[in-house]
């Protein structure tokens, strides 16, 4: 501007909900703009909240300042590289950790207070999910898709699950107290629930099949890994193509639905 060139460039918000939103380069705080706030709220998962800006230069001014360069390479700062590297690393967890989070006790919000039957005063309590009984065939559906605002994402977290000896005992409601198989702790005014006498106590499961999803929210493809009950080997099923796979290849980031069978269940 000191050379009388006027505005050297314009800053445009890319990927926003409304097209062609320009910020003022002369503004000392150009990012303090309602459009930036909306873009940050819709940035979704995959890293810290971020926006994408496009700098549109006046061509004659750009050529005079930088030369006639057809293909320019802009070096990112070191902090940008570190952020990208950190978020490219896919986190992993175990199936046991998934069950621990699923059955974790949670504090209810003040808006969800419940009325105490004794004092008739709203109380801020806790809620906890527990497994009461287990079936012979245990089907576990992993959450692979989620929606954040207007954006939908596929989750590719590696969930490490055992092929044999999945122990579900730590995730079942407490039993075996004196006087019967009581379920958890119960208030004095509530009758305790008791399990049927013949309820099975075998909590060990073996994996026999995995449904895999490949692709994104917009489209994808399903394959399966299945264990042959006759030879005990694992096979990959991809439409009409069937081939053997190693046990180490069964647990992948594409695993979507897991099929377990109780170890001592009577086969049909």
UniProtKB/TrEMBL annotation:
Coiled coil: none annotated. GO terms for biological process: protein deubiquitination. PROSITE patterns: USP_2, USP_3. The keyword Transport does not apply. One of its GO terms (molecular function) is cysteine-type deubiquitinase activity. Residues 1-263 form the USP domain. Gene3D superfamilies: Cysteine proteinases. It catalyses: Thiol-dependent hydrolysis of ester, thioester, amide, peptide and isopeptide bonds formed by the C-terminal Gly of ubiquitin (a 76-residue protein attached to proteins as an intracellular targeting signal). The keyword Transport does not apply. Its EC number is 3.4.19.12. This is ubiquitinyl hydrolase 1.
């Amino acid at each position: 501007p000191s050379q009388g060139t006027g505005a050297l460039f314009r800053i445009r918000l890319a990927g926003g909900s409304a097209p062609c939103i320009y910020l003022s380069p002369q503004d000392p705080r150009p990012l303090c703009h309602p459009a930036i706030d909306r873009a940050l709220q819709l940035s979704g998962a995959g890293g810290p909240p971020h926006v994408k800006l496009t700098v549109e230069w006046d061509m004659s001014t750009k050529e005079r300042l930088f030369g006639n360069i057809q293909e320019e390479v802009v070096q990112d700062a070191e902090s940008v590289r570190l952020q990208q590297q950190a978020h490219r690393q896919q986190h992993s967890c175990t199936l046991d950790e998934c069950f621990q989070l699923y059955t974790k006790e949670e504090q209810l919000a003040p808006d969800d207070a419940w009325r105490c039957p004794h004092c008739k005063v709203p109380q801020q309590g806790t809620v906890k999910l527990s497994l009461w009984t287990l079936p012979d065939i245990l089907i576990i559906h992993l959450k692979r898709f989620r929606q954040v605002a207007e954006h939908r994402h596929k989750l590719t977290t590696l969930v490490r699950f055992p092929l044999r000896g999945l122990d579900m005992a730590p995730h079942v409601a407490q039993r075996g107290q004196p006087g019967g198989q009581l379920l958890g702790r119960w208030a004095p005014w509530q009758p305790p629930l008791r399990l049927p006498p013949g309820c099975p106590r075998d909590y060990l499961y073996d994996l026999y099949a995995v449904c895999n999803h490949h692709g994104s929210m917009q489209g994808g493809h399903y394959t399966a890994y299945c264990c042959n009950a006759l030879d005990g080997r694992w096979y990959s099923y991809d439409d009409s193509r069937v081939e053997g796979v190693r046990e180490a290849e069964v647990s992948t980031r594409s695993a979507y639905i897991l099929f377990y069978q109780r170890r001592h269940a009577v086969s049909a």
